Input
Amino acid sequence: MSFTVVLVGRPNVGKSTLFNRLAGKKLALVDDTPGVTRDWRSAPGWVGGLSFTVVDTAGLEDVTDDSMEARMRRQTEMALERADVALFIIDARAGVTPLDRHFASILRKSKTPVLLVANKSEGKASKSGLYESYELGLGDPIPLSAEHGEGMADLVEALLPYAPKEDDEAEVDAVAVEASDEGPVPIGDQPETEADRSKPIQIAIVGRPNVGKSTLLNSLVGEERVLTGPEAGMTRDAISVDWQWRDRRFKLVDTAGMRRRARVDEKVEKLAVADTLRVIRMANVVMLVVDAEAILDKQDLNIARMVISEGRSLVIVVNKWDIVEDRAMALRQVEDKLEAALGYIKGVKVVTISALKGHKLDTLLDAVVDTYTVWNRRIPTSQLNRWIEGVLDHHPPPLIEGRRVKIRYVTQVKSRPPTFALFVNKPLELPESYQRYLTGHLRDSFDLPGVPLRLLLRKGK
Ligand code: GDP
Ligand code: GDP
Output
């Protein structure tokens, strides 16, 4: 379970800078195509062992003649609706401006919790702005410098109460470690139960309009009952589709939403993003359908990132393969784009199919089952600790001010997606780059391709 943090505030306060810092530079580069009007951006965020989805509202405004304030209001309200917590950012150097006050008045009425962030707080010039910001009535400001990366530990502290408990099991584990010296009862040592296998795999089919989602669904279930066609969606809004393939059961989530999205025109497409997110959250495996003729554009990649940051497993379905002329080139394109945009998650399955002709549907379902299996994988603690010992021998964490953060041990606390608790003496001091290194190494060592992996830092003596 991930949570969503949205960045709001007037232009120029540093939302994008903070977004980049939380999401990692690489992602931002991919997104920032010059000259392209940005809609909102969403990416997996990561700071001090907390992982979440970060949403940046910069540039969300519609191209209309509305006043700035009206646009801001709309953008803010939309963003708040889908967030668990909002960071309201002001520029401490500029002090509180009328537009900030306007924002604050909207935010004070919102049901979503709001944390006030005083950005650009490096140096003395920010002091008066910091004090001024108390008048906004949103509690104590968190001083931060997004540009210089200062104040991130305070930000983590402030966000912590809104992070979901990793699930009760995991919480108990962590407490147990402190209370006794016996260590947690790791999920990794429990075998997969029969019940796991008999449960249907919840699938979502997502993608832009016209890529062939409905056609795919029909081919998969082998009946013309769900369908496109003029009267589709008018009456049967809550169809649940179940089917079986080999010894596995599948359940498609939210076919109604799927049809709705297939009919939206360009103008309302932005709103469909919220819909997509909702569907993703219901699924175990998400089939992201892309059109072989227009492979993995920006919007496709945004959806892919959403799937990952929501902790779901992802299969990329390149549809309409029947009409592709240069298949080698098309495949290379997919691989390059995936590497550039999702390089941090190695091994995402890409399946080329023709939904219309029913080609390669078995390969697709195989990929779904494989990915689902990895997503459910449990790794025994003994293996994990042998692994971490090896890593520490060959590539220990870097020294920080002459001291080394000590990693004590690691255990899997959850599957779906595989989630590991790493016990360290100073969780906030383990560099992000090193956390990413560990995650990548873990993925390779235990053969965990194509699914999100989570590493939780826990304080342990
Ligand atoms: P946005 O419009 O809210 O997304 O703001 P940007 O992230 O584009 O930042 C606006 C300007 O403020 C840019 O020139 C940034 O380099 C600068 N900026 C962002 N964060 C900081 C900070 O922590 N300190 C200082 N001094 N400047 C910052
Ligand atoms: P949706 O909006 O994503 O649900 O897309 P549809 O399933 O309605 O398909 C959009 C169009 O693409 C329809 O005209 C389909 O016949 C066509 N289409 C779907 N799959 C394929 C395919 O595998 N090959 C070809 N050539 N056309 C396809």
In short: The CA atoms of residues 74 and 457 lie 37 Å apart.
